[in-house]
Amino acid sequence: MATPARNLPQLLTEAKRWFDDALLASMRAAGEQPVTVGQAAVFAALDEGGTTVSELARRMGVTRQTAHQAVHVLIGMRMLEQTSDPASARSRLIRPTAEGARVHRRAQDTLAVIEGVLTERIGADAVDALRRALTAPMGEPPLVEAP
């Protein structure tokens, strides 16, 4: 019996895991504090001026409790801090500390090198086509009936 072809969500998940594994291993090898994929995702979802935990959760596609847990571990690592939200007395903003900003810049630089490795392996045309395809507007997710 032949193995069924992997669908696009499976392929995209595997590609994301490849990047995550390369980034986290490279950062650990460089002597940075180890973080999880979920904790790294917090940095990708942060605005420069700060972001609420609720907004982080929405952007990350996780529950507020999951985002809150990741944020508080990173606060304990002194990579994030909480500040008052000037727009709402009830809200707190999460933003990187100087150390968190330094680590995030290093991670961004590391990702650029990892993308370069991918370009060497599959070619610039393939990477450019992949970027174009993934940034093309897809519209709202469709609601389809099961066949």
UniProtKB/TrEMBL annotation:
Lineage: Bacteria, Bacillati, Actinomycetota, Actinomycetes, Kitasatosporales
Record SUPFAM superfamilies: Winged helix' DNA-binding domain
HTH marR-type domain mapped to chain residues: 28-127
Source organism: Streptomyces cirratus
Protein name: HTH marR-type domain-containing protein
Cross-referenced Pfam families: MarR_2
Superkingdom assignment: Bacteria
